């Protein structure tokens, strides 16, 4: 019998802890709040750099360019959700896109690339 009583007490305590932690997890940022900015940079020879969770778009862009590692790197996209870069073999071009989800960022990049052989080369999310 003591084992059963102990199990019930343990279960009750576990439920209380779980309930308390659930309320902490469910609490979210206010509507419209931005958790951080991200960016993806490229150079003409396919070097890439990423940056996520920066306080401003400019800081994210600069960090992405710096992480790309070459002087001719440029930020192709900045984002608060996700960013993606699409490439085309036939057109030899790249295009950045962004969206609230990875799927939307990829679709944005491919739509802006507008090439039949377009594909996603890289992506990043905050």
UniProtKB/TrEMBL annotation:
This is DUF4189 domain-containing protein. Residues 37-125 form the DUF4189 domain. It holds the Pfam family DUF4189. It comes from the Bacteria. InterPro entries: DUF4189. Keywords: Signal. Residues 1-33 form the signal peptide. The keyword Signal applies. It comes from Mycobacterium avium.
């Amino acid at each position: 019998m003591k084992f059963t009583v102990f199990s019930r007490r343990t279960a009750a305590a576990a439920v209380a802890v779980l309930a308390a932690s659930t309320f902490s997890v469910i609490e979210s940022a206010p509507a419209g709040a931005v958790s951080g900015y991200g960016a993806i940079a490229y150079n003409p020879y396919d070097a890439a750099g990423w940056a996520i969770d920066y306080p401003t778009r400019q800081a994210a862009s600069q960090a992405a360019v710096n992480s790309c590692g070459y002087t001719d790197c440029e930020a192709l996209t900045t984002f608060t959700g996700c960013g993606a870069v699409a490439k085309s073999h036939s057109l030899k071009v790249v295009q950045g896109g962004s969206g609230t989800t990875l799927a939307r960022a990829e679709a944005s990049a491919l739509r802006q690339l507008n090439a039949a052989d377009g594909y996603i080369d890289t992506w990043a999310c905050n």
